[in-house]
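Thread: Newbie trying to understand structure tokens

Hi all, I'm a second-year student working on a class project, and my supervisor (Dr. K.) asked me to get a predicted structure for one chain before our next meeting. I've only ever worked with sequences, so writing a 3D structure as a token string is new to me. If someone could post the tokens and maybe explain what I'm looking at, I'd be very grateful. Here's the chain:
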Amino acid sequence: MAQKEGGTEQGRLKTEDSLGAKTMVGAPSAGGGVVVEVREKKGPLRAAIPTMPFPVAVICLFLNTFIPGLGTFVSAFTVLCGARSELISERGVCCVFWLNVAAALIQILTAVIMVGWIMSIFWGMDMVILASFRFEINEEHC
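---
Reply by user tm_fold:
Sure, no problem. This is what the structure looks like when written as tokens:
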């Protein structure tokens, strides 16, 4: 730790375990503990969810809520229109497109037993969350 005038500067440590989960250890918190952030390792279908503009993500959530899989199917085409995804650098645009189409088909086919409908709503919520992070990052840079 480096001393500065009027306070101390705390370093951050990034580690990665064998499963790929990243943790960040920061400064001690007010209660004397250590603040730890854990990021989950996503499977290929979840990592393929595109980061879209916020209004498009809200429309996809709306579509997924009332017609399971339709919003996910629409989001697959946003990948072809330039929406980014965590998997594009590893697998390419075409593969990410087909993974999103597969997720939409899974949602449609399992909607009969309510699993697909619930999955579809969560997928739409993930789209909105990713879009809101993108919106926050763009506001910080402006």
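A couple of things are worth pointing out once you decode it. Residues 1-24 have pLDDT under 50 and may be disordered. The chain is about 55% helix and 15% strand. Feel free to ask follow-ups in this thread.
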